[in-house]
Amino acid sequence: MPHHHRASSLRQSNKAFKSKHATKTTLREASKGRSASDVSNTSRLASHKASPLSASGNEVGSRQHRRNHAKQAQRSKRNALIQSNRVFSSSSSSSREGKDGLSKGFAGAGAGAPRICAVVDLAEDGDSWEAVRRIQEEGIDGGVQPVAGRSVEEALAQGLPYCELEATRFRQTIQFLPLPYGALYPILDACKCADFVLLVLSASTAIDSGSWGELCLRTLQAQGLPTVVVAVPTLHPDGATGVGGSKKAGAALKAANEVRKSLLSFAKYFSPDVEKVHALDDRAERGALLRILATATPKRVAWRDFRAWMVSESAEWEPTSDSNLESKGNGEANGLSGLNGQNAQRGTLKVQGWIRGAPMSADRLIHLPDFGDFEVDRITYAPPPNARTKRSKASATTATNDNQGDDAMVDADTADAAQDAPLTAGDVLQSRDEEFADDLVSENEPDDMANEQTWPTEEEMRVAERFAKQLPRCMDH
């Protein structure tokens, strides 16, 4: 009887040979007769043109896709940063804009738009004008120079609500809006259009729970805050000094650090982006504060980016003559100079400033706080007060009027679409088109007689007689 061997389950199975590098035979079979240069070019082209879905299975294509994606994201962020700061930079040429309104983010020749900084006092012993004065005291050596006619002293003498300082080292203009303690509504209006909010705290007066300072901060937080910077007049409220009269020695330095830490903790509760509390009595910290205001990119306020807004730098009222008033057929319209009904007159209000945010169009309505909505008559061009060259032009002026006879004017940035002819003061950039422009009628005015039953017309009666049913003679009595 023949003997048959049964296969053992313990039979050894050796691992197949796997070459770490492709052999010549494998490369020859993969090339399928093509030369080495053709194979490399094809693989490079395939990896470059691979879609995100098909590149995942290709190692070279996936790596190239990740590199391209990272490069595109980097370029997008860089362009967004440049665009956000473009309004503050200067340009070497002026431009005009078409019918679609003034384009945003472009400053005219020679000087850009000023950086707006609202200075808010949160303590009773604070002084916002004094805080700006200390920054101005840096002088030429510190890179600070007041704009002609708009220094702190000249603004207080003329009754201006703002002052402007030029950071010569950074070629930027900073417009300060000092606001007093307790003025809640002016603070809210100023922070609506500010790029920075400078909170002036006190080292001796705490902001307790339920105080006006806390109310102001919570209201600003609900409205939406731009970039917040915190400053304090001094970290040594009692004038304490260290050894040898120095404020940076011994117990005085320790007390100052404790005050700084406490104020920083308070500020971070309402604005987590705050990194430091700047002491205005220290020249180095004043320079750091000025550098932030002149170089930092303002924080984006979402609800504001969809609107055109401005800070008025000057306003002028031009009454309309009686002949023009009668020709328009409305002699009882109230102007801004006669809101109470006495000496009411029509006219043109010219307001000069920088238009920021969304593009400005003369066909849209504008809103003046405490006065209402108005129609724009035209947008004209006005040179900035801090122009560095003779050909520099950066602001624009718009004349506005409403259906009741009130006119208003706003200034705007120059447009992105550059043209050969340079702009001059008084050039009309855009005029109101009555066919497409918005009017002041915002609600439907109901007609009280629309629902009344009226007598049928003669035509309706004739139609009714033609379709009337004729009764038989036997039923006619």
UniProtKB/TrEMBL annotation:
GO terms for molecular function: GTP binding; GTPase activity; U3 snoRNA binding. Pfam families: AARP2CN (PF08142), Tsr1_G-like (PF22298). Residues 1-106, 317-343, 382-408, 423-459 are annotated as: Disordered. One of its GO terms (cellular component) is preribosome, small subunit precursor. Residues 113-299 form the Bms1-type G domain. Residues 63-78 have a biased composition (Basic residues). Transmembrane segments: none annotated. GO terms for biological process: endonucleolytic cleavage of tricistronic rRNA transcript (SSU-rRNA, 5.8S rRNA, LSU-rRNA); maturation of SSU-rRNA from tricistronic rRNA transcript (SSU-rRNA, 5.8S rRNA, LSU-rRNA). Residues 435-450 have a biased composition (Acidic residues). InterPro entries: AARP2CN (IPR012948), Bms1/Tsr1 (IPR039761), G_Bms1/Tsr1_dom (IPR030387). This is Bms1-type G domain-containing protein. The gene is SSCI20200.1.
